[in-house]
Write a structure and sequence with these properties.
Layout (H helix, E strand, L loop, with lengths): L2 H7 L3 E5 L3 E5 L1 E7 L3 E6 L2 E16 L4 E13 L9 H6 L2
Antiparallel strand pairs: 1-2, 2-6, 3-4, 4-5, 5-6
Organism: Butyricicoccus faecihominis
InterPro entries: Spore_YabP, Spore_YabP/YqfC, YabP_sf
Protein name: Sporulation protein YabP
Amino acid sequence: MAQEERNREMPHSVILEGREKLTISGVTDVHSFDEEQVLLETVRGMLVVRGQGLHVERLQLEAGELIIQGEIGLLEYDDSVQPRDSLFRRIFGG
């Protein structure tokens, strides 16, 4: 089965706990992140997370899981965002 087909079958959920912990499944890539914004690709489209003091607590792309800690202020699906090449592809040469 091709990677793209597996991605479409991957479940997607977003769980926000007290605006301080965000757990996302169905993550296919993380394009950028800093303390104020995380831009990621999910099986349901591009997701922008904004806030303050954001940091990636756990990332498991093989399982499609991401946990972000910090003060979450905004979650927005925005398919008009055209990210540059993947952050992790640039770092790890994938």
